[in-house]
Every structure is written in C-alpha cells, then in structure tokens.
Design brief:
The chain is α+β, with helices and mostly antiparallel strands. It has helices at 5-20, 31-38, 66-72, 86-91, 109-118, 131-137, 141-164, 171-184, 246-265, 272-285, and strands at 25-28, 46-50, 57-61, 78-81, 98-102, 123-127, 189-190, 195-198, 219-224, 226-228, 231-232, 235-240, 297-299, 306-310, 324-327, 330-333, 337-340, 343-347, 352-354. The longest helix has 24 residues, at 141-164. The N and C termini lie far apart (54 Å).
C-alpha cells in the first residue's frame, strides 16, 4: 500500500468531524473529495470513512484501477476490487445499521434510491453536502506548494504571450497556443477553457475565443489557469494592442483600483461578502456598479471554482488563514469593451500572499 501521510491525516480529521456530527459513516463519491482524502486520481471509486479513531477506511473501485489504487491509497484503507456496481458493494459492507452521511449535492436521485434500496432498513441516510469541502478550503503546505507552481506557470505563459504579440492573430489561435505551451511547460491540463476576448467581445465575461483576428488599438482580456498535480491556478490580465481610446484607459484604471482595493481587503476574519463590498464600492462610486455583475472571487484548489466565495451572496462565514481565493473585479460595457484583472492570493491573518506575479499595470503588446 502507498503511504500518503497528508491524505491519511485528512481522513483522520474527517473521522473526528463525523463523531462530532454523530455520523457513523460517510460515503465519499465526489472525485475531488475522493482525491483529497485518499490520493486516488482515477475516474471510478468510492470510499467509506468511519467515525472516530480506528473507524472504517474502505475503498471500492473496479478492475481498471486495481494497480493504480494500490499505488495511490494511503496505508489503512482496505481496498475492494468490485466486479459489479460500486454502490452495491458499499451497501454490503456497512453493517446492520446507523447513520450514513452522503453528499446530497453530488449523489444523484437515482443512485440515492438505489443505495436506499440496498442498505439494511436500520440505516439512516443523512445529507452531508459540504462536509469535506469545508476542510478542503484551508490548504496545507503541500497543497499551497502545488498551487504556487500552477500560478508561476501561468505567469510565464502571460510573459510568453506578451513577447509573441496579439494583433493580427485570431483569438482562437492564441487560446490554442497558450494551452499547448502550458502543457509543454508541465501543466496536467488547463484548469478551465481559456478565454481570449478582444475589443467588444471582452464585454462577455465568459467569452469563447473566436476565429476572428485581434485588431490593433483594443483591449484583450486573457483569462487562464493551469492544473499542476491536480491543483489549479486562475489569473486574468487585460492587455492593450496599441493606443487606446480615453474611455478604455479610464475603465482599465478603474478596474485596477478595485482589484488592488480588493486584494488589500482580503484577510482572515473578514467575510467574503465584506471583501466583495469593499472592492465593489470603488466601481459603484465611479458610476459603473451595474456593469460589474459577477462576484469578486472564489476559492481555488483541486477545483478551480470552490468555496469560499467572495460575492454579494456569499455566506457570513469568515475567511480563514490558508484559504486560496481569486480577486477579479471587472467592468463590461456591451458592444464596446470589457476589462477584468485577477490575482490569486493566499489568505493570511493580516493580509495576503499574492501568487500572481505578472504585472497588473496595463501592458501594451504588438
């Protein structure tokens, strides 16, 4: 069996939480949660974690992952190679009765019904969405090291893009080339489909790259992230391809001021809702509040969009030291232009560690 100390320690912490919640077992089936707790990176697996010290640690997968699971699972997990449905095997391994937590945000209605049918009647199914995710929010040193690597890789890609220039190339060509270069430099894959949006197309926050040449004298928003050993980065920069109209420069400086204000506002003990309000006020006071329609940021880790959130609708839960979040205000003027600037930061007790090091000042490229 592989000895993955971080995964084993995480499982121990979850086991303590189960005891606190008076749960006997937790069914883990979300791929990111499964990787977090077991180190398993395959596409077919389930885990059962028991409450307290010495609680059950069982992992279920199929023949395709027999060797891989043996290499990746921490010591202490009992491994089962299942020929049929994994849920059937789980139901046969839980014992006579108790309280079984499950992820109601991930387990389908169909699979919930199948599990309920197969379990002994004395088992109570208890919705437990977010239990593991709450632990995932605060990153340990190993996780932070991987996220730093992913952010550093993106810094290099942005510098590479600036050197190659943008004008005269299509948005799609730039996106394809930067993703290829990202992999060439060691990324597992992009952490999400890259955005390259020029001119008026930049007014779409989630614009898809087009087979349209990027002209001179416009703003170009590039939003990209890399996944390194499972962990993500996320960064946005808006470039100029030459001399800009005064309005474009004005909007850029406004978003930059909001971004810097947001970064300065991030700290442990302050809620994501509060941080969003502080940065948003900069844009609202300039009269563009209605053109900043999305949240200020989100957590980043195994998933590129995870908790905690920085938004008007975020919870009142305080940020914690070790959270990794984006700060990404934007202003979008339909049929004219868009600007977004985004840094990835680690929350500290009195501020942040900024992981995105490519300049936020406006960079003009050819």
């Amino acid at each position: 069996m592989a000895a993955d100390a971080p995964a084993a320690l995480r499982s121990d912490r979850i086991a303590d939480e189960l005891a606190e919640r008076e749960l006997d077992l937790l069914l883990v089936n979300h791929p990111y949660n499964l990787r977090y707790l077991t180190g398993f990176t395959g596409s077919s697996g389930l885990a059962l974690l028991g409450a307290g010290e010495g609680g059950m640690r069982r992992f279920f997968t199929d023949f395709r992952y027999e060797t891989q699971s043996a290499e990746q699972l921490p010591d202490g997990f009992e491994r089962h190679i299942v020929a049929g449905e994994l849920l059937n095997a789980v139901a046969g391994a839980v014992g006579a009765g108790g309280r079984l937590g499950f992820d109601d945000a991930w387990l389908s209605v169909k699979h919930h019904a199948a599990l309920r049918e197969k379990l002994p009647a004395a088992w109570e199914l208890v919705p437990s969405a977010g239990l593991v995710e709450r632990f995932r929010e605060v990153k340990d040193d190993g996780e932070l090291a991987l996220i730093r690597r992913a952010a550093e890789l993106v810094d290099g890609i942005l510098a590479w893009i600036a050197e190659r220039g943008l004008a005269g190339r299509t948005e799609r060509d730039v996106a394809v080339e930067l993703e290829y270069e990202m992999r060439r430099r060691g990324a597992d894959e992009p952490s999400f489909p890259s955005i390259v949006a020029s001119g008026a197309h930049g007014a779409l926050p989630h614009a898809q790259p087009r087979d349209v040449e990027i002209p001179r004298g416009v703003l170009v928003t590039i939003d990209l992230g890399a996944r390194v050993d499972g962990y993500c980065s996320d960064c946005t920069r808006t470039f100029a391809t030459g001399e800009l109209e005064p309005e474009a420069r004005e909007i850029y400086e406004l978003v930059l001021a909001a971004e810097r204000t947001g970064v300065a506002a991030v700290m442990a003990g302050r809620s994501g809702k509060e941080v969003d309000a502080i940065a948003r006020a900069v844009i609202e006071e300039a009269g563009y509040g209605e053109r900043f329609g999305h949240g200020l940021g989100h957590g980043v880790g195994l998933d590129v969009h995870e908790s905690p959130r920085l938004s008007r609708t975020a919870s009142d839960e305080p940020l914690r030291a070790g959270d990794v979040v984006t700060v990404e205000p934007g202003v979008y003027l339909p049929e004219r232009l868009g600007v977004r600037i985004e840094d990835l930061v680690v929350v500290g007790e009195d501020g942040v560690e900024i992981l995105s090091h490519y300049p936020t000042e406006l960079v003009t490229v050819g």
